Description:
InterPro entries: DUF1254, DUF1254_sf. With 311 residues, the chain is of the alpha+beta class. It has 8 helices and 9 strands. The longest helix has 30 residues, at 57-86.
Amino acid sequence: MIPKVGNNADSVAGSFFGNRMDRSVIEMQRLFLAIVSCVALTGLTDAANVLGQELTPVEAQTIAREATIYGYPIVESYRTLHAFAIDREGDEFKAPLNTLKHEANVFTPAENGVVTANADTPYSFLWMDLRDEPVVLGVPAMEEGRYYSIQLTDLFKFNFDYIGSRVTGNSAGQYLIAGPSWTGETPAGISKVIRCDTEFAFAIYRTQLLGPDDLENVKDIQNQYTATALSEYADRAKTDDAPDTVFSTPMPAEDSDLAFFSTLNFALPFCPSDESEQELMTRLARIGVSPIPIGTASVIATRLVIHRIGM
C-alpha cells in the first residue's frame, strides 16, 4: 500500500510540523542515502542475520528504502508531537496532550516556526491522545461572514477530516474524535463522530481575523473552543486506562543515521497498519522494524549495527 498523502483542502499539514518541513523532501533524500550507505556497510544485513532473518545486502537496502518511505511521515509527526506536547522544557512546547494552545496574534515574517502561516487566521493547536478514550471538540456558533476551520491530521500526516465553515458550517457543535480501537456508545449532543486511524491526532485551528480591530473578537472565539475527554463530557467513568508511557526522545532532524529506525519502532504501535500493509510489515520486520518488540535480539542487532558503522 502506498503511504497516505495528506490532502490540501485548506493548507498542507506538513506546514505545521516544525520549522524544517520546507526542507522535508531534501532531508528525506539525505536520510535515505545515509541509511543505504549504512546498509552497504553490511550493518543491517548482519543485524537481520542476528534476528534469524537471512538477507543479502541488496535485500536489506530494498527493505530499508521501503521502511524509510513508509516511516518518514510517522517519524516527523512523532517529532512534532514530542516537541509540542511532551518536551515541556523545549522551545517549541505548546501545551500538554489534550490541552488547547491559542496563538492569539498575527504572524509576521520574523516568526518562522510555521511554514507558510496565514497572516489573517490566528491559530490554535491541540495534540490529542486517543488511547484511553475519544476527545470531544466543542466549537461555538459564529457569524456567517467569519471563516474558521479545524484541520485534523493523524500520525501518517493524513488530513482525515475537517471541521469548519466549508464542511460543517458556522453553527455550534460537539465533535467526537475517536481512535482506531474505540467501540463505545455515542452520547447525546454529539454532532458527528470522526474516526482517526492512529492513537494520536493533531488539530490545527484557524479563526479568521476580519480586520486590525478584530483581534479581541478572535480571542473570545478561541476561548470558547473546548477539548473534553469523553468520560468528562458524558459524565461517566472511564472504561480503560492507557498504560503509563515513557515517551522516547526522537532523533534530531539533523541526524541521518539508523536512529531513525529507533524512533519509528517506538511510534509504530500508535499507528495500526491496514490489512493491505501486512506483507509490507512482514518485510520490514526482517530488518527489525516492527511495532512488536523482537526480544533481546533486536537490542543485540542494534548494537551490532552501531558497532559496524562506527557510530
